Prior knowledge:
This protein is of the alpha/beta class.
Amino acid sequence: MTGVIRVLLVDDDAIVRAGLRLMLGGAPDIEIVAEAADGAQVPALVTTHRPDLVLMDIRMPGVDGLTATETLRARSGAPEVLVLTTFHTDAHVLGALRAGAAGFLLKDTSPQDIVAAIRTASVGDPVLSPAVARRLIEHVTGGSGKEARAATARARLALLGEREREVALAVGRGHSNAEIARELHLALPTVKTHVSRILTRLDLNNRVQIALLVHDAHA
């Protein structure tokens, strides 16, 4: 994607939406194309305005942000979703990432970091607030159900071909497509093809979900 990043704001607090609109208005490559106060409004607004990214709150009346993200990311050609919220329990973080969000930020994140995160997430690259990253690490390295998650994840990775597994493991280490191409001596388009096949075979939405699966498998 090139040019201006088209953003849909989704938050039930009108003051928060106004603040975000004011803050993001200073970025020349970001345009707020629409706003929503409830997750139920998201599908229609996405169809009408075709945003590149949805900046999504979690707790909203009617349809919450996690449900809205999962519904949206199941659509063909769906925009990326970046969660921006005050809530960061394990359930919220993992729920958002497993639903297909490209990132998870807290509302106390600095304006410049939110702008940078929008640019990163708009192309599908993962972005997490430091506090959220710590919770994710804690989840991967311990907690209840660790063995069951690992067994399930390993079984899913076993569905991949050898080269696809190598690419998945590299994604799990946080490597970019270019880095994977150099590491595995592959052409960049070949790496992109492998990533697309991994997403399709494992019914995943983005690289974040690949990384979560790899981490669970090796927990």
